[in-house]
Amino acid sequence: MRWRKLGRLYEASDIHPKLRSHAANPLAVHLRDDVYRVFFNGRDEDNRSSIGFVDIDVVRQSVVAICDAPAFVHGPASSFHSHGISIGCCYEAGGEHYMAFMGWHVPTTGGHWYGQIGRLSIDGDLRLHAEGNAPMLALDAADPVSLSYPWVMPVEDGYRMWYGSTITWDTGDGSMLHVLKEASSHDGLHWRRGDLAVPYEMGVAQAFSRPTVARRTDGGWDMWFSYRDNTGSRYRIGRATSRDARVWSLRLDAPGIGVSEQGWDAEMVEYPFVFDHRGERYMLYCGDGYGRTGFGLAVLEDDA
């Protein structure tokens, strides 16, 4: 597999008090012709993330428009997304459109932050609206520590979700174990949790985030994600493959994309989002600093 980098599309800038830095977790929604609205996560001065957007011409690789205010702001102190909203994916259910996200919360009584999974509704003008105050996928006995970035996909009997779940914040050497699990649903709202979806390797790939899934031309499936080892190293983009989108095999040796020799993505690459346009497969991804340097675009040249 080989991705050809097309360059940085958007360099994060100080747009608004809630979008002072970063452009993480890019997510493309088609607007018209070759133009996509790319939602992203920007941060305020307290590192709380909200949602902004830029409109991008994918073919020209140019910025068409930039928002001047957030599309959606993190919640109040009592909410499950009080300290940030991190974008996962968009999907359709029951004739309505939704954006699934990870909500960050730091307990006022102290203790470690944790995430849970929620969703926003999307109207015809691509405006985002809250759906109540409760998470769509909350912490429970199966996932008691923290949840992260969901990817939701329609399947024959409903919907499937891949999401992150923290097993422990400390495996004994100060490193976390955060894996990718799966869940299923008949309506895209109520979920039945399954088992571990993607295998992990201690000391190699044990902290995963932001899965994105797409079908290959041979009928199989690819999943890309961010991952780290146990040394505090920078994120890389990894890959897993499957014949049925159920049993996955790690292919860390063949993601098709890595860091550049110099520039905005020379230290890390992370938060991939894969989509198709006019017969081409594209990947949006972030570079250094967890999105501090913005996001870029790559095109798939070989999917073997």
State the gist of this model.
It is built from no helices and 20 strands. By secondary structure, the chain is an all-beta fold.
User: Could you state the order of secondary-structure elements as H and E?
Assistant: EEEEEEEEEEEEEEEEEEEE
Spatial sequence of strands, sheet with the most strands: 1-20-19-18
End-to-end C-alpha gap: 5 Å
Global geometry = globular
The portion of residues forming beta strands comes to over 45%
Low-confidence stretches: none
Number of helices: 0
Please tally the β strands and state the result.
20
Quick check: average pLDDT? 97
Oligomer: single chain
**How does the helix and strand content classify structurally?**
mainly beta
What is the radius of gyration computed over CA atoms, rounded to a whole number of angstroms? 18 Å
Biggest sheet character:
4 strands, antiparallel
Helical amount = under 10%
